[in-house]
Amino acid sequence: MDLSFRHIRYFVAAAEAGSVTGAAALVGVSQSAVTEAIKSIEHQLGVPLLQRHPRGVSLTHEGHQFLRHAHAMIEALTAAGRTLSAAGRKLTGRLGLGVSPMVAGYFLADLLARFRRTFPGVEVAPSEDRRPFIEQLLINGELDVAILIVSEIEEKAALAHEVLARSQNRLWLPPNHRFLKRDRVTLFDICEEPLIVLSADDYGDALARIFRRAGLSPRVLFETGSVEAVRSMVATGAGIAIAPDLAYRPWSLEGDRLEVRAIADPLPALDVGVVWRRGLERMPAVEHFLQSCRQGQRPGHRAGEVTA
């Protein structure tokens, strides 16, 4: 069962207002949003919670029972929020955070914003560099924690990590490309076309290993560390590219469209995760940063794997 806090709030508002219209005004959303939320709860519980009539809504017997539990859940979450907020205001210190270029572009801003809202007393000092250098800074104690492409970590004996997001790799194509007629494209097929290679965060090296293991040699037209350059070149028909879903957007900066297709050959996923030094007692700021990262895991990505 997957009851969201938002749905529960909407139900309580409807029960207290006695109408969907009143509930929508209380929580500041549309009437249809309130209606759909209540229907979702009723569907998951398998019982009607509200009786609809021309003057509004009233609680059924099951609705009265659920309302008591809903109030208890809201009170518990509110209390937890107050406790964490108080703890956040008390926590101080400095957190040295390393990030690699692609991670900085797609993960850093959200993670920092979430952590700073909860722990404003902690000074976060982010620094961007290539993954091998960040690994050494972690081992030397010059950084406390890092967000990296963990599927490429080299110092596995010295560093532990937890996967936050797993991104599959797909083929990026310009509109009207012949491969769009297929559901899946093989690596052999890809070698027939000019390839634009994304080199950021060792992605190009990982891609080269994939082709070598398959005994294939792609026709590399251009290598770049810029995702936007890859997007623009593919969209304008210069070539095709293999890239992770986390970087996909269907439009280039110039407004040209891109399409994607699955790759038939099994490719390793790109794992983004939080990394820290093994055997080192983690200070409170690091522990809370790890919790904040887990709370911000992206929907639809398999995550939570830990190597300690």
TrEMBL record:
This is LysR family transcriptional regulator. Belongs to the LysR transcriptional regulatory family. The keyword Cell inner membrane does not apply. The keyword DNA-binding applies. PANTHER family: HCA OPERON TRANSCRIPTIONAL ACTIVATOR HCAR, TRANSCRIPTIONAL DUAL REGULATOR HCAR-RELATED. It comes from Tistrella mobilis. GO terms for cellular component: protein-DNA complex. Pfam families: HTH_1, LysR_substrate. GO terms for molecular function: DNA binding; DNA-binding transcription factor activity. Keywords: DNA-binding, Transcription, Transcription regulation. Residues 1-60 form the HTH lysR-type domain. InterPro entries: LysR_HTH_N (IPR000847), LysR_subst-bd (IPR005119), WH-like_DNA-bd_sf (IPR036388), WH_DNA-bd_sf (IPR036390).
